[in-house]
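the two lines:
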Amino acid sequence: MSKKKSEHSIMENLDDEEKTIERTNKNIVLITIFFVILFLALICYLFYFTAFRSESFINNSYNSKRTELIAKRIVRGSVLSRNGEVLARTVIKNNEEIREYPYGRLFAHAVGFSSQGSIGVESIAGFTMLTSNDPVMLRLRNDIKGIKNNGNDVVTTLDVGLQKCAYEAMGSNKGAVVVMNAKTGEILAMVSKPDFDPSDVVKLQESIDSGDKDTPFVNRATLGLYPPGSTFKIVTVLEYIREHPSYEDYEYECNGRFENEDVKISCYHEQKHGNLDLKSSFAESCNSSFANITSKLDTKKFNDTCKQLLFNSKLPCPFSYKESIVDIGRNTKKSEIIQAGIGQGKTMVTPMHMAMITSAIANEGVLVKPYIIDSVKSSKGYTVREYTEKEYKRLITKEESDILKEFMTEVINSGTGTKLKGTQGYDVAGKTGSAEFSEDKKKSHAWFTGFAPVDEPQIVVTVLAEESGTGGEVAAPIAGKIFEEWFKR
Amino acid sequence: MKVIFLTFNKYIELVLMAVYTIQCFSVFRYSDEKDRNGIYIRQDVGMALIYFLSFLQLYLQMMDINVIRFYIITQLLFLCVILLFRLLYPKANKLLVNNMCMLISIGFTILVRLNFQKAKKQFVVVLISFVLAFVIPLILKTFNRLRRFYPLFAFTGIAALSAVLFFSSAINGSKLNIKIGGVSFQASEFVKIIFVFAIAGILTCVRSNKRILISCIVAGLHVLLLVASKDLGSAVIFYIVYIVMLFIATGRMRYFWGGLMGAGLFSVVGYFMFSHVRVRVEAFMDPLGTIDNSGYQIAQSLFAIGTGGFTGMGLYMGVPNRIPVVEADFIFAAISEEFGVLFGICMVLICVSCFVMFMNIAMRFNDMFYKLVAVGLAVTYGFQVFLTIGGVTKFIPLTGVTLPLVSYGSNSIMVSLIMFSVIQGLYVSVKSMNDEDNKKKAKD
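prediction for all of em together
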């Protein structure tokens, strides 16, 4: 290679090199922008998390050390009913802060407690009540003087009158009652029994440690899983209607029992229901007929419908809750599917979930998120935040909800719920259930879930009374008292 | 008086921090270091003020005279570092010097608060690393034939990672450390740097596809060894660094996007292949649901960040020690809890300004090898910051890497400091070469 030629190519290379450098620098800028965008996204997320998402983490009971720390600087705010009655407050006695619950046991689970762990509103709004939204200057003045600031008050959707009524109607029964506004999802009352005195949790804890098996701390409304019994027929009948457009032609002759090669099902007390169509099967809650109906269902579609109705899945529930269980799968035995169809076997549901399904039927198929915190007010009375109804999602179509409404009305008019017939000024739609839970067939959990009035539903009531008898005899009258109290106004 | 100070101090520090952060970006308006000098000096004053206020607060609450001793010694150290850089390397980039000191000082503050013993240990390592930091630019200046040694770099990296894989015992399920003469080394930390040099060396002459293939094999071996050691965080960093360097070296965008898509594919495969990946993802999806086992760390971290809120609980007024491995991987959560999320965001922005400055320096080099080294180190640093802060805030799944310069850990801080000083060294040596060139040109 001659010297001249190589010099020439060096010149060319230099030119090339400059171009390469320019292009490379452009690419470096691109990479820089790419990473800066990543960081900006991270920073936006941090803002979002701190402003909107952090509260659900802070209120967690695992974070109690930090909330205790804040409690040294802020006096915990009060819990109020929808009409402003005080349900929980912090008072100072002998220089000591004491949490007072003026209604005692009445709101033991709904409002809950907050010492050595927490449940209820005291738990979910714990941090809110330890945050002060008083004027900044006032807070700073208090900080400097070393005076504690006042935390925010939480206004709940709870109604003292209805709560009292539900509490008293339950009497000495174990179980739960959920009362919701059918349109908005506001939780108006929530009772769980057995109960406890929230101001004396320490003493109660001792009695539990020493072997009390009644689990009074458990809020049965959201954490109690029960076999749904006949209330599950709402789901089964819905699935039958979906699969059989000519469901009105259904016929069945009930002789008190259903038998095939897989399973034997008998009606309650082996009662013979005689000639039935679909509506009367539902109204009379005929197990044999429903075993027959279930045997005709498509397993996969049945499972899908259960999923749509939020079985085996998360619920939009403000309290800590358990997911309902239903086992209808490809590998499930035929006999177990038939058991599931009448709400027995492995099927389990919480009263809260049953209330949600009922409210969706009352609300033209749409589930509105149940909520219990209506608003947050600063100690000076100014509104910090307000919550309103929020649609969760459509569970069934409007047409389906109309049919189910009609069927549930029939339960009251001619079926197992006639105890709620002939009420003054309103009509009720609902479904009863008497769920067997052990080999002993004499015992059963009594269920009632329903709403009123039928045309323009105002409230949804779900009642569960453990080991108390049949739904029609025990649970329906409890619901009746609550409807009575509501429509008296 | 004390109460007033303790109440208001966090707000004062937050304002100072915000001012410092804004200055980090306002320096980019000037391209000449001389014009930036005023900003740098104001930054130094702000930094010293924040450090002083933090330690005053710590002392008022801990009432331990050792806190004051520690403060004086470390403040002197920072002063020496800043002055020595100005004296020895007047051409060095002072934004990087300042940010380096700022991040270390935040680390010292929170470490004293979390665990004084560890803070002292960290101080010793920082001291040694600073000595190295002053020597490295000198070495790079006199020894500029580094690109020829890429086979050695590649081989050393692979050998070190293999040694860790085959000869070390697992801690928390991942193999990270190897002990040499009683001192434990986290090999992946040190290999980060030589990996960048190796790849840069291989890719400097890109005309041949053979070179690309070789680089691919070398990078692949590194990543596979790390995956086998269950050191996921490092594996992801090496992977990303490689595809960025490949893109810069070849100028072919498709390598970058293809690489990113490959990363997506690998994560899906990893999810189904490795149970420890699934555990991390589960914890990420639902930390509260898995709080009794895999979600515990991240839930505790989010409790801390959330409870601290935007302005923080105040230094020494939170309970950051409830977070597991808070001094190392979760240090950002502790800082957020006590100094506030806004302070934390400022710190993220300081890291971003370091990253942008690294890239800015990369653009000034005319030599492809230096460019690649600078870009590689910049991405190593930037992406690690993103992984750790994104991880502890639940923006992305947790990968278990440290926050460079801030987290406790002798390997982590030493390597971070070496990284900063390598960039400084390249910057200084190339700058003086360019200056000489310009002088020659001016003479011609």
